[in-house]
Specification:
Oligomer: single chain
Distance between the termini: 51 Å
Order of helices and strands: HHHHH
Number of helices: 5
Strand content: under 5%
Helix content: 55-70%
Shape: rod-shaped
Length: 132
């Protein structure tokens, strides 16, 4: 039995309806064409009846997820911490690597930076993107 003779599910019809909606929003279909095809989608019983409804439309491209970057203000806050702690580690190693005193520079200062960084990143991720 060919796939075109298999019965379509409601989810299949909804997926086709969404593709038609996107095509209409892109200007590929007029409102009248969209309405006609939508009626055919919900009247279709098999895949064979659904396939022709999209045959003259381009295949929708998959959206590329946006890459989340670390905000510049976070980098600017942490660069001095990294530089000072690298210098402290260098001094510690050069003086014999005894008691690990750089801990007392790195940890308190790191905690002081971690709190505003975490709060700022959480608040920024909860904001909706600007739509201009």
């Amino acid at each position: 039995m060919g796939e075109e003779r298999l019965r379509a599910s409601d989810a299949d019809r909804d997926k086709i309806a969404e593709q038609l909606r996107v095509a209409m929003n892109d200007g590929r279909l007029s409102l009248h064409e969209y309405d006609d095809r939508l009626k055919q989608v919900y009247a279709a019983k098999t895949y064979g009846e659904l396939t022709p409804l999209l045959s003259d439309l381009p295949v929708p491209r998959k959206a590329v997820p946006a890459v989340r970057r670390v905000p510049q203000w976070v980098v600017i806050m942490w660069i001095p911490w990294a530089a000072v702690n690298a210098l402290c580690l260098t001094i510690w190693v050069a003086t014999g690597a005894g008691y690990f005193w750089p801990f007392w520079v790195a940890v308190p200062w790191g905690c002081a930076l971690l709190i505003p960084s975490a709060i700022g990143l959480l608040l920024q991720s909860n904001q909706k993107p600007d739509r201009r």
